[in-house]
């Protein structure tokens, strides 16, 4: 049965064995359920929604879904059907929640106590945003951000900025961004933003706005709380503010998915996943003694591009005993995965190899 509760109806097609249900809107993938074939299958892919997802109605006629484009020479609304005539691009990218690893920090921060499982790697197909911008005459002069708005119905009595899921990313992110209608070969499920989702490769989950209704090229960042004060990295106890770093491009990170807990002595394959955010991951080292000594692992499986994760593997000969197994990734720019992650108020992205380690008993 599902660990910690039952699957919410909008996600009742998930594999219950593979999901840790924190709440109706936060479902984590069990550490080793991401598998070793690079792509995380839809039935085990984690879910994080800030608001309740829209009803099934939105996928009755997917091609009729409308998106407004603003901040271009010729602003207008287009249907998904029309958008599909403008271009087609496929990208493999990781969606990782900003709060992935929150449960590894010592301090109590609000939000789901994710460990490693608020991340997955999927192949997305859709319409390149730059093709749409070009069709509409290009973004207006002075535009510095691409701002995407989610299509959830908002209660009227609340101030829109307080709850709307609207995120701005630097304009250059548009180069790789797509409006995705397919996820791993299937129409994007509602749980993951169908019928249409903004995909900003290499950027934290929150920037990948689901049920996208508006895409605007703007001079300023959105005035939504989620942009202004939410998803800002700051010391514990401080309030969020626009001058603090926003959860945009992801840091270099890796973690082991096998072995976990216990295994038999002899030849043991140690494997896991590694990525570099917007940079390709270049190297992964593995330690079985909690970081005293390291050995280079090999990558296995296809390289699906710089935004996808890579599976690494290291064969080791292990005698019976207790081991602390962990991994450390390096990206193409020489950024090395940190040993530990400094506490930050909302407990965003724990990427330290110290606490991502697993204690393994070899018998
Ligand atoms: N979108 C919308 N519209 N809404 C919401 O809520 N969320 C976020 C994204 N998008 C939302 C959206 C988040 S936050 C995340 S992570 C992501 O999404 C997830 O995804 P999936 O598909 O996995 O569920 Mo954190 O940073």
Name its key features.
363 residues; mainly beta; Sulfite Oxidase, Chain A, domain 2; Immunoglobulin-like; 2 domains; five-stranded mixed beta sheet; five-stranded antiparallel beta sheet; globular; binds (molybdopterin-S,S)-OXO-molybdenum
Any chance you could write out the topology, listing elements then pairs?
Elements: E1 19-23, E2 26-29, E3 47-48, E4 66-70, E5 76-79, H1 80-83, E6 89-96, E7 119-128, H2 129-135, E8 145-150, H3 160-163, E9 166-170, E10 178-183, E11 186-187, E12 197-199, E13 212-218, H4 225-228, E14 253-258, E15 262-263, E16 266-275, E17 281-287, E18 295-296, E19 298-300, E20 310-318, E21 321-331, E22 358-362
Parallel strand pairs: 4-13, 15-22
Antiparallel strand pairs: 1-2, 2-3, 4-5, 6-7, 7-10, 8-9, 8-13, 10-11, 10-12, 14-16, 16-20, 17-18, 17-21, 19-20, 21-22
The protein binds (molybdopterin-S,S)-OXO-molybdenum.
In short:
With 363 residues, this protein is mainly β. 5% of the residues lie in helices and 34% in strands.
Question: Can you describe this structure?
Answer:
By secondary structure, the protein is mainly β. It has 2 domains: 9-228, Oxidoreductase, molybdopterin-binding domain (Sulfite Oxidase, Chain A, domain 2, Alpha-Beta Complex); 253-362, Sandwich (Immunoglobulin-like), CATH 2.60.40. 5% of the residues lie in helices and 34% in strands. It is built from 4 helices and 22 strands. Strands 5-4-13-8-9 form a 5-stranded mixed sheet. The longest helix has 7 residues, at 129-135. The radius of gyration is 21 Å and the shape is globular. 48% of the residues are buried. (molybdopterin-S,S)-OXO-molybdenum binds next to β3.
């Amino acid at each position: 049965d599902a660990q910690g509760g039952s699957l919410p109806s909008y996600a009742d097609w998930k594999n219950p064995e593979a999901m840790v249900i924190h709440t109706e809107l936060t479902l984590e993938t069990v550490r080793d359920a991401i598998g070793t074939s690079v792509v995380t299958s839809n039935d085990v892919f984690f879910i994080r929604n800030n608001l309740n997802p829209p009803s099934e109605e939105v996928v009755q006629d997917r091609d009729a879904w409308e998106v407004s484009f603003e901040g271009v020479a010729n602003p207008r609304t287009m249907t998904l059907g029309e958008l599909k005539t403008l271009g087609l691009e496929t990208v493999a990218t990781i969606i990782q929640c900003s709060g992935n690893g929150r449960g590894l920090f010592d301090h109590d921060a609000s939000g789901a106590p994710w460990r490693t499982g608020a991340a997955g790697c999927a192949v997305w197909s859709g319409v390149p945003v730059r093709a749409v911008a070009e069709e509409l005459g290009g973004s207006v002069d002075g535009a510095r951000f691409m701002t995407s708005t989610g299509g959830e119905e908002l209660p009227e009595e609340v101030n829109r900025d307080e709850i709307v899921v609207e995120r701005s990313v630097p304009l250059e992110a548009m180069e790789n961004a797509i409006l995705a209608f397919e996820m791993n070969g299937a129409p994007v499920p509602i749980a993951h933003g169908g019928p249409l989702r903004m995909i900003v490769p290499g950027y934290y989950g929150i920037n990948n706005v689901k049920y996208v209704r508006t895409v605007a090229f703007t001079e300023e960042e959105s005035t939504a709380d989620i942009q202004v004060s939410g998803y800002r990295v700051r010391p514990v106890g401080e309030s969020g503010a626009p001058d603090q770093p926003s959860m945009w491009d992801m840091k270099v990170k890796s973690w082991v998915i096998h072995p976990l807990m216990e295994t038999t002595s002899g030849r043991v394959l140690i494997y896991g996943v590694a990525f570099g955010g917007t940079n390709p991951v270049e190297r992964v080292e593995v330690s079985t003694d909690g970081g005293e000594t390291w050995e280079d692992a090999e990558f296995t499986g296809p390289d699906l591009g710089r935004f996808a994760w890579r599976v690494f593997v290291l064969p080791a000969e292990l005698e019976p005993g207790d081991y602390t197994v962990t991994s450390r990734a390096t990206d193409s720019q020489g950024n090395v995965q940190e040993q530990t992650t400094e506490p930050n108020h909302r407990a965003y992205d724990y990427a330290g190899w110290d606490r991502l380690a697993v204690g393994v008993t070899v018998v």
